[in-house]
Automatic annotation (TrEMBL), chain A:
Residues covered by region (Disordered): 96-115
One matching Pfam family: LSM
Protein name (record): Sm domain-containing protein
CDD domains in the cross-refs: LSMD1
An annotated GO cellular component: NatC complex
Domain of life: Eukaryota
Domain Sm, chain residue ranges per copy: 8-95
Species the sequence originates in: Capronia coronata CBS 617.96
InterPro entries: LSM_dom_sf, LSMD1_Sm, Sm_dom_euk/arc, snRNP_SmB/NAA38-like
Assembly: Component of the heptameric LSM1-LSM7 complex, which consists of LSM1, LSM2, LSM3, LSM4, LSM5, LSM6 and LSM7. Component of the heptameric LSM2-LSM8 complex, which consists of LSM2, LSM3, LSM4, LSM5, LSM6, LSM7 and LSM8. The LSm subunits form a seven-membered ring structure with a doughnut shape.
Automatic annotation (TrEMBL), chain B:
Alphabetically ordered keywords of this record: Cytoplasm
InterPro entries: NAA35-like_N, Naa35_N, TPR_NAA35
Protein name as it appears in the record: Amino-acid N-acetyltransferase subunit Mak10
Biased amino acid composition, Polar residues: 654-671
A GO-annotated cellular component: NatC complex
Pfam families according to UniProt: Mak10, TPR_NAA35
Organism in which the protein naturally occurs: Capronia coronata CBS 617.96
């Protein structure tokens, strides 16, 4: 990837919702605002999602095994606002996009229209 | 690219980890890819994820969150008492301005009660798991749980009151609730019922009386607070009785606090901060000391109940004194009380729940300047002018009064802010009043022609002029505010010691200006009374009111002048000297200090040169100045004595001859009465202190020992600082 292309790719992501996972298992979603060469990422209006704790998970599994009914153990979430995630903390990064319908013939949404 | 996952028919998410890293690594070091509207200034406030100092979600060595929020299902009475008292200390900390996340929201019990958000009040329970068998009775679920619900509802009521008024976020109070609504949707009556049930449960229990009484007192106080915060004025019962009752309950709680014993399970933990919606870093737990918490609660209840008495006040004059005096208490009333007093201004859409704003303002104008026109009485023919100009006058008058209403009510509201903000807000307000004065003058001129007002010569023998009633009223209020700005400058220690002489001089200038203004108002009110003796009683009341203002100003002027003289002599002999820092100049400093006054049209701003000349008293010898100072301080003392005789309330002095004043009437306003008296007495002490300082200095001068003199201004709160608004130097040889 050329530098210009790299820049263009990153710029195309600005303003989109990113899902970033960090080593302790937490997932953050928020609007992509800024990054640098170390992949440090700034997200605004972020939410933190945490996997259900072992106790809750165990309780759910126990319930499933004893009752046979499906049971969900939800992730807990909370608003955390403006955050910076250091590049070294990022284990996974995903982008949320509008899905292209086969019928749509417009330009791909993944690249920002050039000014 | 890995094939995208579909979250929703319209939304997909794609893994871009590798692509992103690859692209980012190609950026030049230092180069940023950022949204055009995103600034690095904002970035500074971003929380760094993974940094334990910034990220409240970082888990410590213990990796499981939920497991630790283990709520004990049973607790002894002693433990319940402890839990209740701990919560109370945290509630007080919240009242004092600490956020919920550091105070009440460190309680595992409250967290369990409030999250997930209960849809019905019956869901607000410590044990959320549905269970088929009935719960065994326990102190935790039958006493402590209703107590917690009552406490949370109290917080909800307090929060609503505060957020509906003017306050400063974080400076006064933290309103964040971290996405945990404080049982906002549930009516107070249901919560009260729960508390009553708990009390009945306790009565039927077989606890030892000592413990049972201690728990009862805590439930009772919660019940009383709930009623107080719900609608302070509507609750039944005599204010004094309620006050005595609540204070007795607090005493009982305080004396039984020693019975409490900490729980073995961790009942308060910072781990809850990980779960709260929050854009701030983790912060430490705050609990106020028991002793201080009880002092605070007592004050809170006293102030709240005392504030209710203000609703009986009938004159704007008295009300302003009350707002000023009530808020000048040290320590200043809690933010809840300050908010409550603000709500009184729009209580049931009327000032104190009974005056329309227009009537309230007009009554104030009327009682001070007695203008010839009145918007309330349009039937009177005004002279022989045309109906057109008359209706024009009325419409302008209407317009003026509605323009004033905000500014006038803000006078009261301003005193409910924290002390620094009071001064700051007044500095802005005087500019507004300056503009109002110009508008009022226009109406006065129109009124002169419409009412065919006869000019009189004022000062007697000089040029003829008109009454200018409305603008006189505005000017009066402006001068009061200007004076308060200087006084609060002393109170807030804004001025450096070498600036005090200049500020005292300016204060005396403001007071003299105000005195001559009141004299002018008095002159026109009485000359009008001669020409049209329509309401001699009204005019008499006005002159009485002017006299009261006059006495106060006379005392202020004399003391300000005495202090000015004293400070000038001290400065001549190298005391309280200007430290002369490298980049300061007298002119710049003067501009800075006089900034609030420099943009006014009246009183005209005084240039630095003129101020310097007038305030330095160059032409007078030390001896002459001190002699004058000595006389002035005597005058000041006598004038304050005179003020003290007048009592704080205009209506009270009118009723003085009336012996029908009941006992409850004298009990009323006790806070205001006490504070006002203390204030005047302290001013009197300041005058005496000034006298002593002046005579010490005179003696030193006579004995040529003036160079051995040491002068200092005792700081606020010091025993020798007689009055916070009067910087009287303490002189020692």
């Amino acid at each position: 990837m050329e530098q210009a292309e790299a820049t263009q790719f990153l710029e195309s992501l600005l303003g989109k919702t990113l899902h970033v996972t960090i080593p302790d298992g937490r997932l953050f979603t928020g609007t992509f605002q800024c990054t640098d060469c170390d992949s440090n990422v700034i997200l605004s209006n972020s939410f933190e999602y945490r996997m259900p704790s072992k106790a809750v998970e165990k309780a759910a599994i126990d319930e499933v095994t004893s009752t046979g009914q499906p049971r969900k153990a939800d992730m807990t979430s909370r608003f955390v606002g403006l955050i910076v995630i250091p590049g070294k903390q990022i284990t996974k990064m995903e982008v949320e996009e509008k899905r292209d319908w086969p019928a749509s013939s417009g330009p791909s949404l993944s690249i920002r229209p050039k000014q | 690219m890995v094939s995208p996952r579909i979250l929703h028919p319209n939304v997909q998410i794609s893994d871009i980890t590798r692509q992103f890293r690859d692209a980012a690594s190609r950026l030049q070091p230092g180069r940023l890819i950022k949204d055009e509207h995103f600034t690095l200034f904002e970035a500074v406030s971003a929380l760094e994820i993974g940094d334990p100092k910034m990220d409240s979600g970082v888990l410590g060595s213990d990796h499981d969150l939920e497991g630790d929020l283990d709520i004990s299902t049973s607790a002894s009475a002693e433990e319940t008492i402890w839990l209740m008292d701990e919560l109370m200390c945290r509630e007080v900390a919240w009242h004092m301005g600490y956020p919920l996340s550091q105070t009440l929201f460190t309680s595992v019990h409250l967290e369990r009660l409030l999250w997930p958000e209960p849809k019905q009040l019956s869901e607000a329970r410590f044990d959320r798991v549905e269970s088929s068998k009935p719960r065994p009775p326990s102190l935790i679920s039958d006493i402590f749980q209703p107590f917690c619900i009552g406490l949370v509802k109290c917080c909800d009521l307090v929060l609503s009151t505060i957020t509906n008024t003017h306050y400063y976020e974080e400076e006064d109070f933290a309103t964040q609730i971290y996405n945990r609504p404080l049982l906002h949707d549930f009516p107070v009556s249901e919560v009260s019922t729960l508390l009553q049930k708990a009390r009945m449960w306790l009565q039927a229990s077989s606890l030892p009386p000592k413990l049972s009484d201690a728990l009862k007192a805590r439930l009772d106080l919660r019940y009383a607070l709930l009623g107080l915060f719900e609608s302070p004025s509507n609750s039944a019962g005599n204010i004094t009785e309620r006050l005595v009752g609540s204070i007795a309950t607090i005493e009982q709680i305080e004396s039984s606090a020693a019975l409490g014993r900490p729980t073995s399970n961790e009942a308060f933990t910072l781990k809850i901060q990980r779960k709260l919606a929050s854009n701030v870093p983790p912060r430490p737990m705050i609990a106020i000391e028991r002793r201080k918490a009880f002092v605070f609660l007592r004050q809170l209840i006293t102030d709240t109940l005392m504030a209710l008495q203000l609703l009986n006040i009938t004159s704007s004059d008295d009300l302003l004194v009350v707002y000023q005096t009530f808020m000048a208490q040290n320590p200043q009333p809690a933010v809840y009380v300050r908010a409550l007093l603000q709500t009184f201004l729009t209580y049931n859409h009327a000032v104190l729940g009974k005056f329309a704003v227009r009537d309230f303002i007009w009554q104030d104008i009327q009682s001070l300047v007695r203008p010839t026109v009145s918007p309330l009485d349009r039937s009177t023919e005004l002279g022989s002018t045309t109906a057109v100009s008359q209706s024009q006058l009325y419409s302008q008058l209407d317009h003026f009064i509605s323009r004033c209403s905000q500014s006038f009510l803000d006078l009261f509201r301003t005193f409910c802010l924290n002390r620094c903000r009071v001064r700051r807000t007044l500095c802005h307000a005087v500019l507004e009043w300056d503009q109002l004065q110009a508008d009022a003058e226009e109406i006065d001129i129109l009124a002169q022609s419409v009412c065919q007002e006869k000019p009189v010569s004022y000062p007697p023998g000089e040029e003829i002029t008109f009454s200018y009633s409305l603008s006189s009223w505005v000017y009066h209020h402006k001068l009061v505010q200007l004076r308060t700005i200087v006084h609060m400058g002393f109170e807030l220690s804004i001025y450096a010691p070498h600036e005090l002489a200049g500020m005292c001089w300016y204060l005396s200038f403001l007071s003299s200006t105000h005195l001559s203004h009141l004299e002018r108002i008095g002159f026109f009110v009485s000359s009008q009374q001669h020409s049209q003796p329509s309401s001699p009683d009204g005019a008499r009341a006005t002159l009485r009111k002017l006299y009261r203002q006059f006495t106060w100003l006379k005392a202020t002027e004399a003391l300000a002048k005495a202090l000015h003289c004293l400070l000038v002599v001290l400065q001549r002999h190298g005391q309280l000297a200007n430290p002369k820092p490298a980049y300061a100049s007298h002119r710049l400093r003067y501009e800075l200090r006089m900034r609030p006054f420099m943009h006014l049209s009246v009183p005209e701003p005084i240039s630095v040169g003129v101020a310097q000349e007038l305030s330095s008293l160059q032409k007078n010898s030390d001896q002459a100045i001190l002699q004058q100072a000595s006389q002035l301080s005597q005058i000041a003392r006598k004038a304050w004595e005179e003020v003290l005789k007048e009592k704080w309330r205009l209506s009270a002095t009118q009723e003085a001859g009336d012996s029908t004043q009941t006992h409850s009437e004298t009990m009323q306003y006790s806070t205001v009465e006490r504070e006002w008296t203390r204030d005047v007495q302290s001013s009197m002490r300041a005058s005496i202190g000034a006298s002593i300082a002046i005579s010490t200095l005179t003696k030193a001068l006579q004995e040529s020992r003036i160079n051995a003199v040491k002068a200092e201004i005792p700081p606020i709160g010091h025993r020798d600082r007689w009055h916070s608004s009067w910087p009287v130097p303490k002189i020692s040889i």
